[in-house]
Amino acid sequence: MTGHLLDVRNLKKYFPVRSGILQKITGQVKAVDGVTFFLDKGETLGLVGESGCGKSTTGRAVLRLLPVTEGDVFFRGRNLLALSGENLRRARREFQMVFQDPFASLDPRMTVAQLVGEPLEAHGLAATVGERNDKVAAILEEVGLDASYLHRYAFEFSGGQRQRIGIARALVLNPSLVVADEPVSALDVSIQAQVINLLVELREKYGLTYLFIAHDLSVVRHISDRVAVMYLGRIVEMAKTEALFLNPLHPYTQALLSAAPVPEPGKKEQRIVLGGDVPSPLNPPSGCPFHPRCFRVMDRCSRDVPHLQKRGEGHFVSCHLYD
Ligand code: SF4
Q1: Mean pLDDT for the stretch of residues 283-304
Q2: N or C: fewer beta carbons within 10 Å in the chain?
Q3: C-alpha of 303 from chain center
Q4: Does residue 291 have its Cβ closer than 6 Å to ligand 1?
């Protein structure tokens, strides 16, 4: 039993690699490799990292959109990984996803009423088309769209409007938890702030809880209460947002922040340039997976795997510098 709204423990998602004529399994891509975090009601956790670090896979695995290799996902104290059939279908009302690309995630041949109303119909929450349309019109207004858009098609809308439709679709079932997977990265910078502000407003109004996945640190800083940094399928640092931005402990977090400095009065940032590319999760480096790129690497780093350890109030880091 757990007191958190969401409690993710030692989550692993491995993808088999097949080769040869017989398509035998010859390896595993460890996309998510032992991720642990929690979310309390009304809280937002930002999950950041470079492309391919496993953050989107984590979001999908938490929502059971992908089969999980190992671990536990407790939602309101119930292990989602133990649910199946009707129990899982009913539980799904409580957690929804906002996708990265509003162009790809919405079928352009469906009207707004059909797109946003689909989850209502799937869960038997609209007995008639009229009832569905009334509920869709109400949620459209909540996300800043005119109810008169009901019978228009997704292709008629701008990127920002389509993402608002995507948010309406996620919220129409009145969920508690929303996983937002890079929800603004496909949008113009001028539109990003509007969508982020909308998400903040909706969180306050409905007491929503967000797992907010992004690679843009400034976006994450604006919306998150806490931030978790991922590298090669693992969380390497997790802290309250201001603690992480003002006092990053892990060399990878320090490098990420120096690459996207957020102006602090009187603070002079020095850019840390990381050598090499992100290693393949098919064949991760020994010891600390970050060691081939780390500017503070020590002898033991290629040998010993560091584990996430508490290094301050709510501040966790996985690095031998703090052992
Ligand atoms: Fe760098 Fe070593 Fe810390 Fe890994 S454990 S981040 S290689 S100092």
Answers
A1: 95
A2: N
A3: 31
A4: yes
Q: How many residues are recorded in the chain? A: 323
Q: Cβ distance 97 to 163 under 8 Å?
A: no
Q: Tokens 């709204």, residue?
A: 5
- List the residue whose alpha carbon is closest to atom 3 of ligand 1: 319
Q: What percent of the chain shows pLDDT beyond 90?
A: 75
Q: Which residue has the tokens 């949620």?
A: 139
> What's the CA-to-centroid distance between 123 and ligand 1, angstroms?
48
- Contacting residues for 156 by C-beta, under 8 A, at least 6 apart: none
Q: Which DSSP string corresponds to 100-114? A: S-HHHHS-TTSBHHH
251 ligand 1 Cβ < 6 A: yes
Looking at residue 186, its pLDDT comes to 85
Instruction: Judge whether 50 and 278 are in contact, CB under 8 Å.
Output: yes
Integer Rg of the chain from CA:
21
> Among 232, 254, 298, 308, which is best to mutate for testing ligand 1, by the most ligand atoms less than 8 A from CB?
298
Please check whether residue 12 is in contact with residue 213, taking contact to mean a CB–CB distance below 8 angstroms. Answer: no
Q: Tokens representing 283?
A: 């064949």
State residue 25's pLDDT score: 87
Would the pLDDT of 265 be above 80? Answer: no
Q: For the packed helices 129-142 and 112-122, what is the interaxial angle rounded to 10 degrees?
A: 110
Q: Letter for the amino acid at 232?
A: L
**Cα 266 from Cα 41, distance rounded (Å):** 36
User: Residue 184 in contact with residue 200, Cβ under 8 Å?
Assistant: no
Helix (H) or strand (E) holding 222: helix 217-223
**Of the residues 254, 290, 293, which should be mutated to test ligand 1's pocket, given the most ligand atoms within 8 Å of the CB?**
290
According to DSSP, the residues that pair with 231 across neighbouring strands are: 234
Q: What is the pLDDT of residue 154?
A: 86
**Ligand 1 mean position, distance from CA 315 (Å):** 17
| pLDDT-derived band at 65, boundaries 50, 70, 90 | very high
